Amino acid sequence: MKELQWPIDCGLIMKKKKSLKRQLLADGTSRIKKKIAVLGGSTTDDVVTILELFLLDRGIEPEFWQSEYACYWQDGVFGNPELEEFKPDVIYIHTSLRNLENRPTPTMTYEQVQTNYEAELNRWEQLWNALEQRFGCPVIQNNFEQPDFRLMGSYEASDRRGLINFLTRMNLAFYDASEKRQNLYINDINWLASAIGLEKFSDPQFWYLYKYFMSVPVIPEFSLQLAAVIGSLFGRNKKALALDLDNTLWGGVVGDDGADKLTIGQENAEAMAYYEFQQYIKSHKDIGVILTVASKNDEENAIAGLEHPEGALRPDDFISIKANWDPKDRNICQSAADIGILPDSFVFVDDNPAERALVGAQIAGISVPEMNEVSQYIRTLDRNRYFEVTSLSADDLKRNEMYKANAERQKLQSVFESYDDYLLSLEMKARITDFEPAYIDRVAQLTNKSNQFNVTTRRYSSAQIAEITESDKYIRLCGKLTDKFGENGVVSVVFGEIRGKELHIDVWLMSCRVLKRSMEQAMLDELVRRCREEGIEKIIGYYYPTAKNKMVAELFDTFGFTKTKETDDGSKEYELLTEGYENQNHVIAVNL
C-alpha cells in the first residue's frame, strides 16, 4: 500500500487507520496468520493498531494479546493464564528508557554503578529466560533510546556514572545476549530515535498525559520498523532488486549521451550521490539480496554504462540484465522465472513515475518506492526496510554466487538433447543428513521463506527446530547439493512425526533454485531408507494449498504415493508403503 511506504505521512495514517485496514483486508492478498503477544512497559494500544496495518501490508494477518499497562515483567516472569492460553508465535517487549529500574547517579562509586548495572541486566535476563522456558518462540526486545537531557553534558557519555554511558553499556549487553540466544531479537529504537530526532521521538507530554514513551505522531515510523523485524522472522521480506539504469544508477541517458558523458564518480555533488547509491546497492549482495536490471535500453549501451570506470557496480554484479524495449513488468517477471523466485519478491527502483505506476499495477505484491531525488535514494530504500535481516547464514552470504551458477547451468542445458544427459553432466553430489547444529537457523529460515515448493507451508522458529532436533519422535532430513559449478547450500528440508508404524510429514520443502534436478527424488529415497531403519511401514504426506504453492500440488502423485483423501479446499492426504519401494534418483550421488 502506497500510504505505508516511506516517506510516510504519519498524521494521515493515524487519522485514516480504520479505512486503511479495511482496504488492506479487502485487497485479496494471501496472508499468514500469526499470534503476537505485546508485553508493554508503557501504553501499547495505538502501537498495536498501527502495527497491524504494516503487518497486513507485509502479508501477515496478526492476532494480538496485550499485557496490562507496565505489567510486562510480571506477566513474563511469573506467568499469566491468558498469555499461556494465547500461545503466541512471537513476543514483543515494548519497553524503553522509562522502564530502567537501576539507574546510576553522579554520587555513586564506580563499584555501586557496576552493582546497579548487573542488577539491571539480571532483571532482563530473568525475563528472557522465563519466556524462553515457557514459550520457546521468538522474542523481540527494544533496546534503550538516549535521554533528551544530559545532567553532566558531554561527560555523561564518558563517565560510568553518567546515564548515557550506562545505557550504552546496557545496549551492548542486549546485543551480546541476542547473539548468544537463538530466539532473542533487538528492535533498535536507539537508532530510530536518533534518525527521527530525540525531541520529536519522545515529547514528554505524551508520557505525562497518556503514558506513551514515544510521541504518538511517530508511532507509524516506529511500527514500520517493528513490522520489518517481525516480517523478516516469518519470511516476509523481499529477495531481489530490479533496477532501472538511466537517471537511477547514474545521471544521464547512456543511449543519447554516451557512457563517457554519464554523471557518476567524484567530480560534483550529483555524481557523488549516484556513486554512493551504486555502492549502497552493491552492498546488498553481502546480505544475499539478488541484483537485476530492468531497463529500456539497448543491451550494449546498458553494459557500457555499467562498465563506467567511475561506477561502483559492474555487469557481473547482476544475476539478470534485461535491457531491451519490452515493458518492464514483463522483464521483471522473466527475471523472476529465470532466477526461480516470484515477481512479488522484487523491489522495483526507477526514477520514472510512469514506469513505477505501470509495474506496480501489473505485478501484484511488488514494492515500488517513490524515487524522486538521487540524494534521497539511499534513505528511501533503507527506511522502507525491505530487506530486514534477523539472521545471516552462510547460504545468505553466497546466494548471488549460487544464482550465478544457476545461470551457467541454464546455458549448459541447451547443449544437450537429453535432459538426463544434462543432469548427469552436472556431476551432482548431495549430502543428506539429520539436522545438525550448524544448520538449525538455516532450516528455520527455509521453513519461513519457502513458499512455492512447500507442501504444508508450516513455519518454525529456530528454537522449535532445535527442539525437534533433540526429539526421538521425528525423522529429519536436511539436504545440501553441489555440482561442478559450485555449492547450492542447504536446499531441502523434510521432517515428519513418528506415530507407531507411520511417519506423518510435517514439512517437505525445497529451494526453487534446484528445481527439476532430482533433489526431491534423492530426499525421498533417503527418507524411505531412514523409515525402514526405524521399522516404519507407511509414510503419510499432506498437501495444503496456498496462493503460492501450486507447483507442488501433485508432488506426492509424481512420487508414487496413493491419494487417500481430498477436501473441497484442495487439501490432500497421501500414503506410501515403504516395503517394495524402489529408488527414484539416478543422477545424484548421495553421501559419497
Number of strand elements = 17
Radius of gyration: 26 Å
Note poorly predicted spans.
none
Instruction: Let me know the average pLDDT.
Output: 93
Number of helices in the DSSP assignment: 25
- Given helix and strand content, the structural type is alpha/beta
Strand order of the largest sheet: 15-16-14-13-12-11-10-17
Coarse morphology: globular
Give the termini distance in whole angstroms: 50 Å
Strand-residue proportion: 15-25%
| Major beta sheet summary | 8 strands, mixed
**Which percent bin holds the helix content?**
40-55%
Describe this structure in words.
The chain has 592 residues and is an alpha/beta fold. The protein is 41% helix and 18% strand. The chain is built from 25 helices and 17 strands. The strands form 3 sheets. Strands 15-16-14-13-12-11-10-17 form an 8-stranded mixed sheet, sandwiched between helices. A 5-stranded parallel sheet has the order 2-1-3-4-5, sandwiched between helices. The protein has a 4-stranded parallel sheet with strand order 8-7-6-9, with helices on both faces. The protein is globular and about 80 Å long. The model has no long low-confidence stretch (mean pLDDT 93).
